[in-house]
Description:
Strand content: 5-15%
Distance between the termini: 30 Å
Number of strands: 5
Number of helices: 13
Shape: globular
Largest sheet: 3 strands, parallel
CATH superfamily of the largest domain: HUPs
Helix content: 40-55%
Strand order of the largest sheet: 1-2-3
Bound molecules: ligand 1
Structural class: mainly alpha
Number of domains: 2
Amino acid sequence: MRILSGIQPTNTPTLGNYLGAMKNFVKLQNDFSDADIIVFVADLHSITVPRDRQELKKNIRSLAALYIATGLDPARTHIFIQSEVPCHSELAFILECNSYIGEMERMIQFKEKSAKQGQTVTTGLLTYPCLMASDILLYDANYVPVGEDQKQHVELTRDIAIRFNNKYGDTFVVPEPYIMKGGARIMSLQDPLHKMSKSDPNPKGYITLLDDINEAKNKIKRAVTDSYGSVKYDKENQPAVSNLMEIYSKLKNISYDEIEKKYQGLGYQEFKEDLAEIVGNELKNIQEKYHAIISSNELDKILDDGRDYAYRLARRKIEKVHHKIGLGRK
Length: 330
Ligand code: TYM
């Protein structure tokens, strides 16, 4: 069984990325000792919108270090950088030739992002799901752990894989999205109806894993709440408090019922103060490990090994695909 996922190195990962994706990678790594696990830095994905060169370079390395700092063990999980394995873009074009513009235009993320960008929407933003399908299909991944917002892209990957297999004969494993309960859609701390996002123009809405600890705590303490006055999980009527409870529950590994009991008769204040401490401690642990890794030589060795491992698998798949389609001489 193979489990595969990736994250874009745009800005630093948020608490949303952590709870919806990174923490789950670690859980899967630890729970499925016989699974082959691949986690990569999706740097090609991040250039669908213009990026500053220095910033991008810094974020790529930083995300790789954060994978390890959050608990991925390089002895168990292969970690690499997408653009260092050229097969990803090679297969992406082939998949573009086996998918339809209408399918790409129907993607919610494309609709949302392109609505904001008007005339400057790149072709890459439209075809991005084919690159993501390529990331997954190159490695015959069975499960793809992602947050709720990426489910549609994994479903499209399935459609493309099935279509390709029907047309050219069995080539790709059809993957399944793996969405864990709790934390799959963490909302903004300032607007519980919008997803927490690293590209939110209001930094009070999100916490990144490398935020200053006190600043992060303050963001929790100042997060918007609802008007009920009691700590109760009710997504419809108390979306803000329910979002904070989701963060609490996922970080402390306790149920909503237990949280409700603990804060029964108390207002939001005490709950938020405790949550601020919990978030602060989690970030502190991650940051300590992060600083040790980012300044060591070990990281390059890990990424070289990850790249070589990924390349071997991906090259074999590309050759199979070429053969099935009739490309090249062999
Ligand atoms: P990206 O970089 O936007 O997000 C990385 C992961 O974090 C999850 N996520 C969230 N989970 C909970 N709450 C949130 N507010 C939240 N925001 C983001 C995402 O669902 C995702 O799991 N295209 C992908 C990266 C990618 C990929 C892949 C993933 C490229 N190729 C192949 C899996 C397999 C992306 O842009 O995710």
